[in-house]
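Objective 1b: paired records.
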Amino acid sequence: MTMHDDQVDVTTEIVATLVREQFPQWSGKAIRPLVSTGTVHAIFRIGNDLSARFPLRLNDAAETLAVLEQEAQASAELAQVSRFPAPEPVALGKPGAGYPMPWSVQTWLPGTIASDADPSGSDAFAEDLAAFIASLRDAETRGRIFSGENRGGVLAHHDDWMAKCFEESEGLLDVPRLRQVWGHFRELPRTGADVMSHGDLIPGNVLVTGDRLSGVLDTGGFGPADPALDLVGAWHLLRPGPREVLRRTLVCDDLEWERGKAWAFEQAMGLVWYYVESNPAMSRMGRRTLDRILETME
């Protein structure tokens, strides 16, 4: 079952052909699909040191190229300021071999994603995550502000999406209670100026070695946003004890902490119903995040 109605099929044979035709210098490297809970790209390893990312949802080729170019620029910028390893852009591929959109190549990072090696009980991991977030916050925005896309601006601007989530979640979740929670979250005022943010700190985007953070993935969304946005990682990735370690390390006040919880809530609500059949692991992650949030509001 595909995750999206407009999902494009990407096979190892297609990738091998594209690599051979467009990047012959890599044609001798093994092509291996990466089993992932990711929802935006199909990922294939090229040898041991590269990965190719193919957008899954059909889109105009020119628009896709513009997005990939922007993501490459953002990824390169994050890699320069991060205290932890992050993928670096290598090349952009063209449509071909039956695949209709541009695609990207970046460096491969070793490690295990946090959804496969749960670091949620580690204070050391929480300290690492806080250090990563702090390093991004210290980066210059260079006059840029939130783009207006996705999470990171005004919470109440997500009311229409949340209404759809509540409708789709009937029979899956305690919708009346969740509506009340959102009623509280949507009113939280914004006080801090935008800071540079990763934007999607979920387990599938974080690498661990042992109980320590060893790398961060999916960095193409790096940009200015609500300072609370990257606090979603506190709820997606951490149990209560380590979560408090992260909060103390970042010196979060009550309002910022609540707004971080609100962004995690908004994201998790969509994950539960949208992926309940097509990506059960992602749906379960959303449920776990909601449970963690609700436990603090009883």
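Objective 1b, second protein:
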Amino acid sequence: MIDFRIEPELQAKLDWMDNFVRTKCEMIDLLYPGHGAPYDVGNTESRAYIKPLQDQVKAQGLWACHLGPELGGPGYGQLTLALMNEILGRSYWAPTIFGTAAPDTGNAEILAMFGTEEQKARFLKPLMAGEIVSTFSMTEPQAGADPTEFTCKAYRDGDAWVIEGEKWFSSNARFASFLIVMAVTNPENPPHGRMSMLIVPTDTPGIEFIRHSQTMGDSKGEDDGTHAYIRYNKVRVPLDAMLGGPGEGFKVAQARLGGGRVHHAMRTVGKCQRAIDMMLERAVSRRTKGKLLSEHQFVQGAIGQSVIELEQFRLLVLKTAWIIDNEPHGAARTHIAMCKVQMAKVYHDIVQRAIQIHGSLGVTLETPLADMWMGLPSLALADGPTEVHLAQVARAYLKNTKPAPGLFPSDHGPSRLAAYQNGVS
């Protein structure tokens, strides 16, 4: 039986998190704005400001909740993590303050699962402490996120791996201390066995940052892009820089994506709830045509539709998290894809309605709504385009569907009746 009950002790922690994010983290969004700000470890002012807040989180036992006790985390299951990430989604600084910012969370997980003791000491320990940030350098300019089309390669030369090729949209690389690079090392293998993961410190000779691309919402006049276009010019790393075994890059990548997509989806639930909260407040505060917005049926419809859609999506994500916790490995794959597909649609519809209800104020930069809206296209593309996951859901159901036994569908009334009358079950 699927059970979403929350124990009183956990509810107390969630209540503390909710108050902390609303009163502390959301204020830091205003003090230090910008998509890249939480990752800029070189900004000593912002780092000094958040350090006491991070200490408070650690004192509550809520630091790096995605990892087990052996790695400094509390070892919560995915359902609990989903509820926590719903709260963190209200603020883009909150994940950094709680030690759960992506892509560092996923990188920490694969370092914990596949890393050697030396790799953990050098890279995982400072990453867990929040002292550094990292980058997952996978996407390529000509292949997007399809690893079977990757051309960036790494080959052995004596006691080193030599990396040659380009990577695109390596998020936060300008701030990172190291990159985890997916490169083709075994071209003779089947497509999903060709790649390997390599840990590359960003000060390694041969790394060329072609540019740091900006996205919607960034200031075009400033160099504030956070998504790097990188060229690896015969970058040499030692043989022990490999994370996992040769040809296991796809396996390693998949290990970091499943839970991360659920967390991402629940953070989106948190953003949507914030938009609904703003919508509700606006509706009972603003008057037009002699009455409150909340008294107009069009506004009531927008609010009602938003609440229903978010509740449906939230339950889907919680069910997915429950499956990960309670079913065999891989059982949640289709549900994870469902979350990815529905996430962008629900987010789009709710934020758009919130902007509409706020009128001209909604399109200004004076509320969080404009920034939410600008993040929509990226939401539909991160971790793979929505269409890829939609097709995956369809294939999962088609795979177990048998064709009709005869000329007509199995639910064809006359055929069923005739079979029944002839004694055919």
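The domain at 134-243 is CATH 2.40.110.10 (Butyryl-CoA Dehydrogenase, subunit A; domain 2). The chain has a mean pLDDT of 92.
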